[in-house]
Amino acid sequence: MAWVYLLVAGVLEVVWATGLKYSDGLTRLWPTVIAVVTVTASLYLLGLAMKSLPMGTAYTIWTGIGAVGTVVLGIVVLGESASPVRLISIALIVLGAIGLKVSH
């Protein structure tokens, strides 16, 4: 169950980061509310996952899901650059997370 908590926590990290982007510096109410609620839920689920997963593995995978998810969302939704360097960097993050999972 810890891996499910961690996956959902990572997805919620993407949601809160996106809410933060749309909050316009925490000046727009609903995107700010979404960011605050989802960051709280994300951290709660990360804490549950860390009850049985190694801290370093859980935290790295959580941030990896958030980082990769926000970059992909930025490329697909916001039209951010999909340069080869960015795509290679995403691949390296994913490979690092896989390495941690396999070594667990």
TrEMBL record:
Keyword hit for Transport: yes
GO BP of this protein: xenobiotic detoxification by transmembrane export across the plasma membrane
Intracellular or extracellular location(s): Cell membrane
Transmembrane segments: 27-47, 59-79, 85-103
Pfam families found in the cross-reference section: Multi_Drug_Res (PF00893)
Entry keywords, A to Z: Cell membrane, Membrane, Transmembrane, Transmembrane helix, Transport
Cellular component GO terms, alphabetical: plasma membrane
First-listed, main subcellular location of the protein, grouped into a coarse class: membrane
GO molecular function annotation: transmembrane transporter activity
Record bears the keyword Transport: yes
Topology of this chain in the membrane: Multi-pass membrane protein
Position of the signal peptide: none
NCBIfam families in the cross-refs: PRK11431.1
Family to which the UniProt record says this protein belongs: Belongs to the drug/metabolite transporter (DMT) superfamily. Small multidrug resistance (SMR) (TC 2.A.7.1) family. Gdx/SugE subfamily.
Xref: PANTHER family: GUANIDINIUM EXPORTER (PTHR30561:SF0), SMR FAMILY PROTON-DEPENDENT DRUG EFFLUX TRANSPORTER SUGE (PTHR30561)
Protein name: Guanidinium exporter
Species of the source: Methylophaga aminisulfidivorans
Gene that this sequence comes from: sugE
